[in-house]
Amino acid sequence: LLFPCRTQAEMAHTCRGTINLSTAHIDTEDSCNIVLSNGGRTYHLKANSEVERQRWVTALELAKAKAIRMRNNQSDDSGDEEPASQSDKSELHGTLKTLSSKLEDLSTCNDLIAKHGAALQRSLSELENLKLPAESGEKIKAVNERATLFRITSNAMINACRDFLDLAETHSRKWQRALQYEREQRIRLEETIEQLAKQHNSLERACRGAPGLSSGSTGIASTAKGSAQSAKGEASDEDEETEYFDAMEDAPAFITVTADPKHHRRSGSNLSGASEGHPEDWNLEDSVFESSNQSGYNESTCKDLLPKKRRRTRIPDKPNYSLNLWSIMKNCIGKELSKIPMPVNFNEPLSMLQRLTEDLEYHELLDKAVKCESSTEQMCFVAAFSVSSYSTTVHRTAKPFNPLLGETYELDRLEEFGFRSLCEQVSHHPPAAAHHVYSKRGWTLWQEITIASKFRGKYLSIMPLGAIHLEFHSSGNHYVWRKVTSTVHNIIVGKLWIDQSGEIEIVNHKSKDKCQLKFTPYSYFSRDVPRKVTGVVSDADGKAHYVMSGTWDEKMECSKIVQSSHGSTSTEGKQKTVYQTLSPKVLWKKYPLPENAENMYFFSDLALTLNEPEERVAPTDSRLRPDQRLMESGRWDEANVEKQRLEEKQRAVRRRREAEAVEALEEGKDYEGYIPLWFERKVDAVTGELICVYKGGYWEAKDKQDWSACPDIF
User: Fold this and answer.
1) Domain boundaries in the chain?
2) What residue stretches are annotated with the PH domain (predicted)?
3) Check: CATH 2.40.160.120 for 314-660?
4) pLDDT, tens digit, for every residue of 119-139?
5) Which of 111, 139, 152, 448 has the highest CB neighbour number within 10 Å of its CB?
């Protein structure tokens, strides 16, 4: 966007990507390219021909000359306009009247100070004329000098106040105009956002109401063309050093075309070498798959999930504490980097172990997967479950508490939902947590997750390391996958927002079925739906059976493939695969957030219950962590003190353990270091990695209430 006719004040408030021509540098690279730069921004423009390039250069140079003339003619003191409204005018005059009144009070005080100061000096002069000892005369002279300095300082203060009032009167109208401009900009922005929201809703309705396309080259071409009309996602702040080039459309890996099962026919001419499926297998009354147009999906799910025990539905509202950076810096002076306490202002009142347990919010997907007779159908539910674990992160920008070494967290829902979960912090450097879930409905899940993070200036990349294992008891199907990278944007300046990007490969090590899921990263230039997830489920021979599509913050759908063929080759040499599918079915849909969630850290219904106090849990359970409990209660200052105490206690234990290791080394003995209480390290038979697996004993200890083996960490 080039705006040569805007004033300097307007240039400071233009939309993102605007460049000021009055200070821009215009250059040419070759016969068709133009380079336009201004400070940290650089635009590369390409014309169709050399003649067109020259016309653009001429127009830009004329616009630049006009912008320079306007800038030179603009007066900085052009704020002689009256305030926009009578209320603003009254407010301004009231402020000036108050300032004048205060100045009069100061002038009166100045007169009194001068009067009494003169009297004081006369009295001191009279004392000097009296016949007093030499020592007394010196003291009186010193007091006289101090009185003179006091009077000079008072006069200087009054003069400074008068100068301030003059300055306020001079610039008041300019300030008022800037304020009015900001108000108008805010109103315009609100109207624009409202318009965009309406357009987005209408586009969504139009897309959902689009009729299915038949197979053939015409349908494929129109589908490919129509898919390019997706709405843009929300914008993010950009780096000032960004260079802008012509947008390139990346060819999709595959294209899907919806077919009608009743009218589905094979077309050999257009689908040579195609793999076929049977539409009659895609039964709408299937006991496992449920159609996206069946309204009873959420109702039946909610009925199955009704808890027998009443759980809490809210926590205390998050206090509105401002983050005082100076207080943090003040606490850091003279301390080692490892000992700098991070305040709870950056946290949410849950530990990392509880966040890990939160992945089980949509556990009913695995209960449904147990009922699947086909391994590829089962893979679809496993894929939907792997995506559902990210749905709670879209608004959750606060970090969870780092668990203490030996800290545990249990979630016993065996009677309500058929599963029980246990987490333990098994390592502190690097931080690692082991997780084990058993369900009496026919599945077991276990994982060991280590978090690696990289700070890259404007954003923070969080990379979970470690494999997630899922095994179904009856079929013996063993699935393994890994998490994608989470990115927290605007770490330094701006509103925090989270994105998920990367690929997940889910492998069934028994049947060799695979599912490749791609989490598309957000891009301002992309025409894809934000937070998009796509994937294909294929068998051991590489034949595709299902197409997965959706978003990681809303829902996932599954479409059965009836025919597939190789489409045209893109300009980049990539060959597109065209999948003709039946109508999609919703496998997973996000539950709505509870009422007042924005004031409760955007917790879901499950997250609200995770830190609810429970009896008979281990003394190392996260629910008993005092700093986390104080933060949840809104007592953040006390929570900061308690958090610092716990961290220092953990450091003392680590120093003692290091001293024991040194002593054992000197004596020639082996030192095992910290040994997890409920987990043990073993080589995984599937992946060949060393992983912490549950060794048993926790639930038996809970039944007996024998926690003598638990360390004192709180």
Assistant:
1) 314-660
2) 1-65
3) yes
4) 777 777 777 677 667 667 777
5) 448
